[in-house]
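Notes from the 1:1 (GR / supervisor)

We went over the backlog. Supervisor wanted to see one worked example end to end before approving the batch request, so GR pasted a single chain during the call. The sequence is below; no edits were made to it. Supervisor asked that the structure be written out right there so they could see what the output format looks like.
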Amino acid sequence: METNYGPDRFSSNPLLPCNEYIPDGEPYVFGDRLYLYGSHDLFGSGEFCGGDYVTWSAPVDNLSDWRYEGVIYKKMQDPFVKKMVNSGKKGMMKTNMFAPDIVEIEGKYYLYYGIGLSKSGFGVAVSDSPVGPFEYIGRVRYPESEKPKNWKDGRDGIEDGDYVFGKGKGPLLNMASYPYDPSVIYDNGRLYMYFGLCFCHVVELDTNDMRTVIKNEKTGHYISESLIPSMFTQRSKRKDFDGMGMLNGPSIRKINDVFYLVYYGTGPNKCNAMCYATSKSPFGPFEYGGILVSLGNSRYKGQNAPTEYVGNTHGGMVHLNGTWYIIYHRHTSNQIGGRQAMVAALTMRPDGNFEHAEHHSMGFSKSALPAYYQWPAFMACYLTDAQGKTKAKTNSPYILQRELAFGLVDDHSGKKVFQVVTNTTSGSVVGYKYFDFGHEARENTKVILSILAESNGYVEIFVDNPISGELIAKVQVEISSEYTDFLSPLKAITGEHAVYFVFHPEGKTLGDLSHFAFM
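Structure output shown during the call:
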């Protein structure tokens, strides 16, 4: 297949190279570059957040040109993780660094993070650069005056004398105020930290050391009441909050003197979404705003079920070139891990609320991608079985990382890997949104599918709808021992369209799809 490769020229989803897995993305502009921070999944590890923290950056005027900035903070730099590892108590919930956040204050960059579901509270690290290296400072802590009588160290200020924020309690005992998924904002000389697992709270931090909690003068408490109803709160008890309940992942931004609290919420129609609520005060009360983006587009324009595999998601907003965007993550494969950063442009209404954005393949692009390039199959944003359903370990297709000679070198395994679309069962659909075929119809064009074919069969290609849309090509496929280009004439079309591949194998599946091109 020719090397006229679309992702080298245009922003597309997922944002980063297909061998990189950065979920829980928090985007920030420092100088003239956009930096993306987040957790770090390692594909095939069978767990979330198994890697050290890394970051990527791109020029704000070229959001397809991402650069790997390397490891910015290692797990073993954290004394709690080191203590657990050295004692043999490894595990995702005890030693993996979950979703972090970062804030810049007077030329210093502060990194806040938690360790799984451990009892270690929040760690804080600092650097002179947005790309690190970050050095551990200590734990978010209570003031010295709050230490209990006969205080004994190790609960879990990590033997440094601190009385750790959260009091060393685990979520089973203290889920309502458990220190989980920190998000920080520096506003008018004050530093606020939001956090929560099923409940969301805010606490102010002392800017003298960036980690000592400050008591709220009005309430007399350190921690606020829950700002967002839990997903477990019955709708009848949500009072004025008639929206999606929170699971985790708070992220805070301020727009035009209004605080926007973004979070991962779940709701009817298998809706897993980035939602938001707003307040004029950092302490609330917050009023539900709506859904920013939903995995598989559940509830988008009335869609009553997701059309791609769903799971948790998490991210934050960023303002670039006059537009607000939401970063979030999708799930790949049919196992834990392998989550990837996605983005969608947001539309802000005059009243300050946002519209529900569409989950798509276009990345930062606000208009359809030009069709006549070679595109990777892993850009798919629509993956369903013959009944229009999508679920892991069923007949629906999914994205899977394979070891392939034409792939990218994986930092984790050292092998060359590439993502493909697999499990292409009879009647299954793989879709892409959106491509622009131009204003004038092009004659004598063709479509090329690169497939490692497990059986004979064919692929129908529709635009706009996989059932009622216009059929623009039918590609015959034969069993192959390597990735093979299968060609078909392409009907001359114009305009912007969603494109859907419908698979018809003679066997169980047609095979793995790696690339396609309209030529």
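Supervisor's comment: The radius of gyration is 24 Å.
Batch request approved.
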